[in-house]
Amino acid sequence: MPTTPLSPTTSPRSVLVTGAARGIGRAIAEQFVAAGDKVACLDRAAELTTGDILQVPADVCDTASLDAAFTTVEQAHGPVDIVVANAGITRDGLLMRMSDEDFQTVLDVNLTGAFRVVRRASKSMIKRRSGRIVLIASVVGLYGGVGQANYSASKAGLVGLARSITRELGGRGITANVVAPGFIDTAMTQGLPDDVKTKYLAAIPAGRWGSVDDVAQVVEFLASPAAAYISGAVVPVDGGLGMGH
User: Nearest CA to 150 among 89, 241, 196, 60?
Assistant: First the structure.
């Protein structure tokens, strides 16, 4: 379950999380609910079971869809104070067999989708001279992965995006950071073959899978007053797997 927030806020913040129907995204959304914030989820997938989160259908690959979704959230919760770009997909395949479509589709969702979300969120943040942006990448974006040229490239691109945002908007009270989870215990990792899971687990110095709450708590910290002077950072949540790569 989400823990008590690290730094209490004087009033609820408007938080928007993409890809929050399940897994890491859902844990992040629930973490902010536990912190007393007003939380909205943008997702194309199944409904959330909690009534504390405003669910708004949207497609991160469609600018008009995102604009309409943001407008709905702003009308319900006010201008977005914190945006977490978590939506992502995989289409794994060896380099020589990977199609142009599989490469481009993953980049469009994972990287360009994050760009579209942040671009829309930044409009009100710039006016208010305040905002927190957190991009959810992956250890694979820094470490690399066999059969994941598209996914790794998309997640590595988020680092450049966050650091460019930091240089462009840092003087306006806006921070942009990247959280890079490692192997987290989700439906995706649970579905891996036993021999693959054993191999991955042996490579993690912490000796265990990460939990979705491990990631959510770091995201909440980066959006808290305690992290006001952190921007352009890449924070690994991987049990030591990446060792800072």
Answer: 89
Nearest-angstrom CA–CA distance, 55 and 241: 34
- Buried b / exposed e over 117-130, threshold 16 CB at 10 Å, is bbebbbebbeeeee
**Known catalytic residue at 143:** no
Catalytic residue from among 143, 151, 200, 229: 151
Beta-bridge partner residues of 69: none
- Residue 98 tokens, joined: 């990977």
pLDDT tens across 193-240, in order?
788 788 889 999 999 999 999 999 999 999 999 999 999 999 999 999
Burial string for 154-181 (b: 16+ CB within 10 Å, else e) reads bbbbbbebbbebbeebeeeebbbbbbbb
Q: Which residues of 208-240 are buried (b: 16+ CB within 10 A; e: fewer)?
A: ebbebbbbbbbbbbbbbeebeeebbbbbbbbbe
pTM of the model: 0.92
Burial class (CB in 10 A: 0-12, 13-18, 19+), 68: middle
Rounded to whole angstroms, the Cα distance separating 119 from 145 reads: 29
